[in-house]
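U., I forgot to send this yesterday:
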Amino acid sequence: MGPPRGEGCVRPLLGQSPPGPVPAGFLFASAPCRDDPPTGTVPAGALTRRRVLFSSDYIQQLVIALPAILFALTLHEVAHGWAADKLGDPTARRMGRLSLNPLVHLDPMGTLAFAVSMAAGVGFGWAKPVPVDINNLCNPHRGMMWVALAGPVTNFLLAIASLIVFHFVARFELHEGFIGQPAALMIVASYRVNTALAAFNLIPILPFDGGRILMGLLPRRWAWRYGQTEAYGFFIVMGLLLIGGLHWIMGPIYRTLMLAEQVLAGNILRIFGLL
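Result:
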């Protein structure tokens, strides 16, 4: 049995150029690989391709991607709450949002949107935002920036960990068989999901994490003015997503993260003599 689908896309991640175009999605949108079969997940802007709603292929993709999505999303939200707690705001901890139980963080409508939209080839959904009282932070202006940064950084580290784990799976040929192949595909999904989630949240538009990070870097007067755009941010992103223009913003972020993850994972493996 040959390598699992997707291995050809993960092997090059340790020191070579990243794969091609990057689709956008709130939680997950898998980047197509050159060796993916035509029935694979399609990027935004290609939703007119033939696809049977809730087909066996859709169910298989959902089963493989769902654990990675839940894990990535849960740790992303917990990281926000943990950072806020360390910086002086215990709101998330008191409301039980530091739990590793995915059900605590899922939004019913966001979960339903993801399940339906994935049938079209793009995972689109959202989770319940972690409550943060900015007035409790030691330094509200800078503190909120660190709270926002904690989520994408967590996904970035999880993506690196996924690359390292996949390296061992491929090296010892554990990707074959009834259990090995689905497990390997889940690891690949974990890498893609975490990279996509980090990239999407780093888009510098409020109320997303990237917007809050930018707001924390700006002088206070400019930050206040930039903060006035938050009411329109969601609609701006939705508009960009619908016209297929979001990849122009997300693409460079995604590719930069991929390259950094490849380099760091490769260096970690080299340091320990494993590559």
